[in-house]
Design a protein that fits this description.
This protein is α/β, with parallel strands linked by helices. The protein is globular, with a radius of gyration of 15 Å. The protein has five helices and eight strands, in the order αβββββββαβααα. β6 and β7 form a beta hairpin.
Length: about 160
């Protein structure tokens, strides 16, 4: 019997990558919990729930581009993708405070696990100039606050 590849299996590479290859964390938004078609991330955070979508050693398709990269080094193959579920109300996309809090905890854990410095935590926007995650691109102060929560200082991570 022939096995069929599921949609999720087509959205990432099952290749193994070592710990040293993972050097970035890329933050995404998932409006009402939906990722863009043909993409995948390692983790999705909604409120106090964190769901691991795939193993960290696999390559997710989360920060590629059909055009120009605006970050010189960050790519799918050397990063972990984390999506924060946002709420869309009245045409505005926002993150709930508990989603941000739990995402910060997850990102801090990943930073420690892989020795990733705060400046290597980026928005999808910083890599491709795609407006993602919308709340952190449209409201720079929210991104700065997220980064302060990671570092515990006033240092600004992933500023472009």
């Amino acid at each position: 019997m022939q096995s069929r590849q599921t949609a999720d299996e087509r959205k990432h590479l099952r290749t193994e990558r070592g710990r040293a290859q993972i050097r970035y964390i890329v933050i995404h938004g998932a409006a009402d919990g939906r990722l863009a078609a043909g993409t995948s991330v390692h983790y999705i955070v909604l409120g106090d729930r964190t769901q691991q979508q795939m193993r960290e050693q696999e390559t997710a398709w989360h920060c590629g581009t059909r055009g120009v990269y605006y970050h010189p080094y960050c790519r799918n193959g050397n990063s972990i993708g984390v999506a924060l579920c946002s709420r869309v109300r009245g045409g505005r996309e926002t993150f709930m405070p508990d989603t941000v809090y739990h995402a910060q905890a997850l990102v801090r854990m990943l930073m420690e696990r892989y020795g990733i410095p705060a400046e290597n935590v980026l928005r999808h926007y910083d890599v491709t100039h795609r407006t993602c995650p919308v709340p952190f691109v449209e409201h720079a102060a929210s991104w700065t606050a997220f980064c302060v929560g990671l570092a515990g200082t006033k240092a600004k991570a992933g500023s472009g």
